[in-house]
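Q: How would the structure tokens look for this protein?
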Amino acid sequence: MRIARARKATGRLRGEAAAEPGSARRKPSPASGARGWSSLAISACSALALVLAAPAAAHLSVNPAQVRAGALVDLVFSVPNAEDARGVDQVTVRIPAAFQLDDAEAKAGWTQSRAGGAITWSGGPIPRGQFARFAIRGTAPTRAGTVFFNVLAGDRTGASTTYRVGLDVAAHGPEDHGARSLGTAALVAAVVAIVLSLAALFVGLYLWLRPPPA
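A: Here is the predicted structure in token form.
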């Protein structure tokens, strides 16, 4: 701050020395002021766009993205390395309280540790421009809604990137609708078979009890 003030004061003295006595000081035109503000606005918008675009450069996903409430599920996290030239050698998945973790994938080339509500894989690494999958198994929350997993991807220097990925928990999953459709079809087929059997039985009784023709 001190250096900036000194430079500003020096520039003011130079401007006063260059002006002749009695000369009128020229006022900046409104057009030049507008151009200055426009340049500042464009620069600010460009910087904001770069800041907002940076987190979207890499994407972490979870598969499946929707599970059934209370179901035993396997979740697979696809962890990218978009820019780290040293390679990602540590991945930590923080488990939400509503998700009951049972176990995690034993991944070749990685060691595994668990502390509290988080599980960490160390080893690798994941080279820049590539991704790796990390799987966990557990019981989904019993209530419908969305739970969030925080996934940290870091390197040996301690630098890390945190991703926040949501898992939708539905009261009835897609597999329930399929099973329900199959059950309905089986019930309809059974009813039709019973009706046909009764009709055949009545026809047989009628033919057996009918008096012979004279």
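Confidence is low (pLDDT under 50) at residues 1-27, 44-57.

The first strand starts at residue 61 and ends at 63.

Upvote if useful.
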